[in-house]
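Appendix B, Record 12. Input sequence as logged:
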Amino acid sequence: MKKPLIGLLASVLVAGATALTGAAPAQATPAHVAAPARVAPAHAAQPLDAVDFSGTVALSNCSGSLVRLPGSVGSDPGLVLTNGHCLETGMPGPGQVIVNQPSSRTFTLLDGSANEVATLNATKVVYSAMTGTDVTIYQLDSSYDSIQAQSGISPLTVSADHPVQGTDIRVVSGYWKQTYSCSVDGFAYQLKEADWTFSDSVRYTSGCNVIGGTSGSPVVDANTGQVVAVNNTINEDGQSCTLNNPCEVDQSGAVTVHQGIGYAQETYIIPACFSAGNTLDLTLPGCTLARP
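Logged structural output:
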């Protein structure tokens, strides 16, 4: 997570463009927030397999995806998944949880070849937080059926299962129209970055060297095609627990730093917090998302 777009533009004028990972303007932000202009990064990995861009979206400063939950049906209003730090009204503070906030944000929907095929329109922020996780979930004004009829695109499915170490994964950025390929290296009991703490985070192997604008990208299991996490940060400079430099803290309190290694927040916890009709209900048994 990184500094906001305003700060980025100023730094570009002084020192030239720098690569960052995506979030809200006019506020200091954690590693991988404000995204630079869309000039494809030279080091970004190219797609290697059947995982493509279908169902991914581009935000003004981040990446995201059109998603369904295991119990969603075609007539349900569509959902877009991205990071909490990509929220257009500013990043949620530690302990802050936003639910059912009106939104008129738009998203550019991509097909499998990264062609822009539709504009999706939000009606509200269903859920947004950077406490325990780093997610924003938007509700759209269109159902999955109507989106598919208009664009031919079906949503990605959010897996209800915890990701598994060693799984072959793809981080698919709708903002950059780039795919990163790596594996699940392991899990961080706690991931701390500046004032924010995330729980049970996915640690990538070195192949997913994510940059600014990739925040909110779906992390897709290359074997199942399902979303298992949402990309959110990377340790850039080898510092410990600072902005842009998340550190891992184990159950005994020991701190570990992995310079150049990226992380994602697991999404299997999301389906347990939704009832029929894609309705958020944080009181459901098994729902562990933070409450307001």
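The chain has two helices and 18 strands.
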